[in-house]
Amino acid sequence: MERLKLVAFDGEDLAVISACVQDAVLKVGDAAFLPKEHRFACVMNRFVWEKMPDGSSRRREYERRRSGMHFDRVRAVRSTGIERKNTDQVLELLAIGYDQASEETPEGTITLIFAGGAAIALDVECIEAAMADLGPAWATACCPEHKLDDVA
After folding, report:
1. Which of 38, 51, 52, 150 has its CA 20 to 30 A from that of 86?
2. How far apart are CA 32 and CA 41, in angstroms?
């Protein structure tokens, strides 16, 4: 399987990256805001969903890959539910969302949503993001699962 290398310049592109990094795990210490470069970057161990036929989780062996992701043109970063001093705190990335401030300008907020209610919000001039696999895949025995709340 080829290594993924994706870029995003709009909401649809960002949704593709979000799907590819769903259930990635990373440590707080593996994410950083570089204010002089207007960049937020992180490295993670992403689950290789693209090898799952039709999204099915019925395989015996699964894979993860070390991947890097960055967002450029970042003006500010805010977080909730994250102990920034605890660099070993593990975060599980569920999705990446985007809220455009107005239809007249491309600026808005990109939100990295993690399990347990944690989130990182990036105030951006526009969407300019990239994700790339950094190395070979390795086997993992577990497939991420998400229990849905009962809907009445």
Report:
1. 38
2. 6
> Distance between CA 140 and CA 63 in Å, rounded?
5
pLDDT digits 0-9 by tens, 10-27 = 999 999 999 999 999 999
Cα distances from 4 to residues 15, 35, 67, 68, 123, in angstroms, run: 15, 27, 9, 10, 26
Which residues 6+ apart lie within 8 Å of 69 measured at CB? Answer: 17, 21, 41, 42, 43, 44, 129, 130, 131, 132
Query: Residues 67, 43, 98, CA angle at the centre, nearest 5°?
Result: 90
Tell me if residue 21 falls in helix, strand or coil.
helix
Mean pLDDT of 104-126: 96
